[in-house]
Amino acid sequence: MSIGPILASLKRNKTQAALIVLEIALSCAIVSNAIFMISQRMERMERSTGMADDQIVRINVAGVGENGSPGALVRQDLAELRALEGVKSATSLNHVPFDNSSWNSSVKLDRNQRAPSLNVGMYLGQDLVDTLGLRLIEGRDFTPDEYVDWEQFNSGAAGLRVPSAIITREVAQRLFPGESAVGKEIYSWNPDNSAHRIVGVVDRLIRPNDTGGADAAGYSMLLPMKDITMGRFALRVDAQRRAEVEKAAVAALERSSSRRVIMDRGSFSDVMRQYYQKDADMAWLLATLMLGLLAITAIGLFGIASFWVSQRTRSIGIRRALGATRGQILRYFLLENFLLVSIGIAVGMVGAYGINQVLMKHYELARLPALYLPIGALLLWLIGQMAVYSPARRASSVEPAVATGGM
Which of 57, 147, 310, 312 would disulfide-bridge 226, Cβ 3.0–4.6 Å? Predict the structure, then answer.
């Protein structure tokens, strides 16, 4: 079908054509960025922690008044927690991921290095590999003689140092590309600036917060500390008995000391759900706004197409009288709409990058990948054809005698 008559018709209806192009351009620019932002939120929520998420219970406590021997109390707490039926492993630690606490440290490959090689999230505790359900892919776990007493270390006991470290695969690849990290030395957290020897590599452990951005999400390090007295406990339990064990663990901690308050408790899955709640809400909001915009766009296209059909009933009848088939009339309107939508999409793609530049500057959004432009274009092409199909079919049903009866 020649597009000459279509272009001639559009020149006679410049205002309506311009409105369609602007509407499509705006929709394309917004929809492309909205799809990209939704996909980013979804990817963020689906990040692997590297942990046995559904098997972990965390309990945070706070003491009331002073305790003469917090280290001894922690040892007593852990003994009672580990003895509970359904508990596979238990530890005291500085934090679990996403739990309103974040310990981070720089890592250097040389003692005298000025700028650090990278920044990592730090996890301090005993039996962390087992308790968090981490997968050791190289080397070994810490041995009993490598663990350092937290209270002594925190008090600055002379000569006390952390001898070893376990890092994640992503840290190993960043620091020692193409090499085994086991046996290598790094400098991070020892008071005397002595080295930690890497004894193992775990597949993944997500850092406690979003420090460093998405690319650094797996930059974590484990240090061997025992009897952490920060009031944070983690238990690995049978997933089917999680609620039962949690209740028993809280009761055990309350029995252990009358001078403490349970600040927070629950499964790690709940911690993750709360942490990502804003991302989920934002994704739903963007999806709702995008669907609303697409619906308004479809209604606008339907309305303008219906108006054009009513305006051109007579000319349609003349074309039918001259031998145009219903199929040709239908294709005419569909092609006309396709051309307008395509022009709008072309303008909208430029606008999409413009909006993305503003979002990058003010909201730290990543650069819009070109992949999302054709996704937005396909959606608008589909919606455009669906919106105009009914008016186009009505136009193709015009009978020559009816259309030309008033001539």
Answer: 147
DSSP character for 397? T
> What burial letters (b/e) apply to 113-150, b meaning 16+ CB within 10 Å?
eeeebebbbbbbbbbbbbbbbbeeebbebbeeebbbeb
User: Dihedral of CA 254/257/259/262: which sign?
Assistant: negative
Give the torsion sign (CA, 138, 143, 145, 149).
positive
Instruction: Tell which wins on pLDDT, 103 or 306.
Output: 103
Q: Is the pLDDT of residue 131 over 50?
A: yes
d(CA 182, CA 196): 11
For the chain, the C-alpha Rg in angstroms (whole number) is 32
Mean pLDDT of 13-23: 80
Q: State the DSSP H helix or E strand holding residue 202, giving kind and residue range, or none if neither.
A: strand 196-202
User: What are the Cα distances from residue 368, in Å, to 32, 38, 322, 381?
Assistant: 9, 12, 50, 20
* Rounded Cα distance, 222 and 135, in Å: 13
Q: Is 64 left (phi over 0), alpha (psi -120 to 50) or beta?
A: beta
Which tokens in the block code for residue 325?
A: 């088939």
- Give me the phi and psi of 351, to 5 degrees please: -65, -35
Q: Which of the pair, 323 or 253, is modelled with greater confidence?
A: 253
Task: Decide which of 382 and 129 is more confident.
Answer: 129
| CA pair distance 270, 19, nearest whole angstrom | 48
Judge contact between 166 and 149, C-beta under 8 A: no
pLDDT given for residue 5 in this prediction: 67
Q: Which residue is listed with tokens 């005698």?
A: 401
Cα 69 from Cα 351, distance rounded (Å): 64
Highest-confidence segment of 29-33, 273-277, 340-344:
273-277
